[in-house]
Amino acid sequence: MANDPIKQFEIQRLFPIEVGGLDFSFTNSSLFMVATVATAAAFLIMTTSGRGLVPSRMQSVSELAYEFVAGMLRSSAGSEGMRFFPFVFSLFMFVLVANLYGMFPYFFTVTSHIIVTFALAMLVIGTVTIYGLMRHGTKFFHLFAPSGVPPVLLVIVAPIEVISFLSRPISLSVRLFANMLAGHITLKVFAGFIVSMTAAGAVGVAGSILPLLMTVAITALEFLVSFLQAYVFTVLTCMYLNDALHPSH
Amino acid sequence: MAGTSDTNTQLHIPAEEIGAGNFPPFDSSTYASQLLWLAITFGVFYWIMKNVAVPRIAGILEDRRDRIAGDLGEANRLKQETDDAIAAYEQALAEARAKAHGIAHETREKLKAEQNARRDKAEAELAEKLAAAEQHIAGVKSDAMAKIEDIAGDTTSALVEALVGKAPTKTDLTKAMKSALN
């Protein structure tokens, strides 16, 4: 059973809850969501509790995260975009910490489930659409008709823009989900090779050094991917929010 | 060999038991629970970020920016003050130097004038004395010249008496002397 690379993504009920025929159980996924939120919030609040003018080492980590996201949002959506900062910062911290939690052996990766990443992506697109419509009204649909395009070409361009807009939540969620899923499966498969090879005698034990090296390398790569996917998710969120603020691009 | 067959059976068991829905991320029976707990946890997280963490970090960063800007402003103000003080000092120095020059010049002029006056006075006095002396010399000379005739007369008379044995008359003497002197 330990060798099954899919097993790590299984959802296990910890406290079964059922309301109206729907299963709302507190699962291992829920547990890691709580852990992610608790860790991220506790870290950000406790490291900044000193409010040091000269930051301590940990405080500067929090400040770094803050300024990293703030810089991203400001450069993509301008200073107007800063009204979405708490939302974007929450997204970044949540995805980043969830991804990093997944790097612990035997821990569950919240973001390896499409429903979670899709929900987050829909939250982003929903915010963009609702805010864009509230603020610009029908002018929000200028998003689909870029200025400077001849009317004849609009017949072709507008549907492409609509399709691109509709595919955004899918690409946004699938990118994060697939990266986390594939990374963890690869890691598990290579680690599994070590186990199977050592079972095949002395030659196997000697040969298992290769998958071991691969496992180490992929672990390092996965740490990079964990951060990078959180970054990509956030930077795309910033760009979509820019569309909500300035639809006529 | 045993390991391989083991793995195969392991991989097959869940598929046979659960069927097509065995891939956990696509198992829609877990979606309701995941969505609910995501909504709860992310909602709480967003609330904490919006109301506690973000304002706090923003406050820290703003305080620091203000402090740095304030310190820079203060430094600029002090530098401005220093520059002003230096400028005032330089101006005072220049004024003092100009004044010193003026005083020195004035003194020199005054001394020169005094010296000139004293020299002029001395020269005038000397000229006066010179004139008086010349006059005196001229007086003495004319007196001497006047007396020379008497002395010459007396001498001539005495010489003639010694030679001839008889003193010449006054008239002859005068006549002879006149012709001799002239």
TrEMBL record, chain A:
Main location, first listed in the record: membrane
Compartments where located: Cell membrane; Membrane
Keywords (A to Z) from UniProt: ATP synthesis, Cell membrane, CF(0), Hydrogen ion transport, Ion transport, Membrane, Transmembrane, Transmembrane helix, Transport
GO CC annotations, alphabetized: plasma membrane; proton-transporting ATP synthase complex
Record-linked InterPro entries: ATP_synth_F0_asu, ATP_synth_F0_asu_AS, ATP_synth_F0_asu_bact/mt, F0_ATP_A_sf
Entry keyword Transmembrane helix: yes
Keyword presence, Cell membrane: yes
Transmembrane segments: 31-54, 84-108, 114-133, 140-165, 185-213, 220-242
UniProt membrane topology term: Multi-pass membrane protein
Molecular-function GO term, any one: proton-transporting ATP synthase activity, rotational mechanism
Function: Key component of the proton channel; it plays a direct role in the translocation of protons across the membrane.
Family: Belongs to the ATPase A chain family.
Entry protein name: ATP synthase subunit a
Organism: Roseibium aquae
Lineage, top ranks: Bacteria, Pseudomonadati, Pseudomonadota, Alphaproteobacteria, Hyphomicrobiales
Gene: atpB
Automatic annotation (TrEMBL), chain B:
Function: F(1)F(0) ATP synthase produces ATP from ADP in the presence of a proton or sodium gradient. F-type ATPases consist of two structural domains, F(1) containing the extramembraneous catalytic core and F(0) containing the membrane proton channel, linked together by a central stalk and a peripheral stalk. During catalysis, ATP synthesis in the catalytic domain of F(1) is coupled via a rotary mechanism of the central stalk subunits to proton translocation. Component of the F(0) channel, it forms part of the peripheral stalk, linking F(1) to F(0). The b'-subunit is a diverged and duplicated form of b found in plants and photosynthetic bacteria.
Species, as recorded: Roseibium aquae
Topology class, membrane: Single-pass membrane protein
HAMAP family assigned to the protein according to its UniProt record, in alphabetical order: ATP_synth_b_bprime
Self-association state and partner proteins as the record states: F-type ATPases have 2 components, F(1) - the catalytic core - and F(0) - the membrane proton channel. F(1) has five subunits: alpha(3), beta(3), gamma(1), delta(1), epsilon(1). F(0) has three main subunits: a(1), b(2) and c(10-14). The alpha and beta chains form an alternating ring which encloses part of the gamma chain. F(1) is attached to F(0) by a central stalk formed by the gamma and epsilon chains, while a peripheral stalk is formed by the delta and b chains.
Family of the protein in this entry: Belongs to the ATPase B chain family.
A GO molecular function held by the record: proton-transporting ATPase activity, rotational mechanism
InterPro entries membership: ATP_synth_b/b'su_bac/chlpt (IPR002146), ATP_synthase_B_chain (IPR050059)
GO cellular component: plasma membrane; proton-transporting ATP synthase complex
Cellular compartment(s): Cell inner membrane; Cell membrane
NCBIfam families recorded: PRK09174.1
Chain segments annotated as transmembrane: 31-49
Protein name: ATP synthase subunit b
Coiled coil: 75-132
Membrane in keyword set: yes
Keyword set, alphabetical order: ATP synthesis, Cell membrane, CF(0), Coiled coil, Hydrogen ion transport, Ion transport, Membrane, Transmembrane, Transmembrane helix, Transport
